[in-house]
Amino acid sequence: MVRGNDCVMKKRIMYIFTAMFLGMLALVSAVGSVSRFHNVGVTVCRKCHSVNGGQTQYEVWVTSPHARAYETLKGEKAMEIARGMGITEAWTDRVCLQCHTTGGGRSEITGQEGVGCEACHGPGSSYHDGANHINYEDRRKGYATAKKHGMYPILDYEDNLLKREKLCLNCHNERRPCMPVTMKEIQAQKITIQVIDTLRKGDVNFSHPLRRY
Asked: Tell me, what CATH number does 175's domain have?
């Protein structure tokens, strides 16, 4: 006979995997099929998108919670949540890596970098080439080209908010197993539509230069 606790655990695990599946469907709906592209990692993006390249995107990211997402899986709080789910090591389990790493733990290149550039912008194997995303005369045309090379359409001018919302809520939702239980923590982690629109929360500012035009 299966014990009551075992039944609860099995139901919880089934619920988690169902939530992950539904989340992935939402992600595909938001960004479309990009299977022919792959991740290259933040070090490739950093070559241009840092102070050395005349920009600051990397420096903003490296001080953000996204950059620390993988390391948090090794903390005591993460291990406590993992134990409650029957997981031995949160930092190696696909359930946790799904949202705490770029590529969901399936890529060795991005497996330990946290939630990097490509988690939000799409796999950069093709669009990272300047010829595939830069247009000095018209940024919109450059962005249109980048989308053809795997960049996610989250900065579009007409419907960017809806697509960005789907992408963000793929992980920032109440179905995730690490959803906080106290109201204070819930409010601290809550991603509102205003945050998704401005890409700003507290001292974190992800606002994109492209949206200024």
From this structure: 1.10.1130
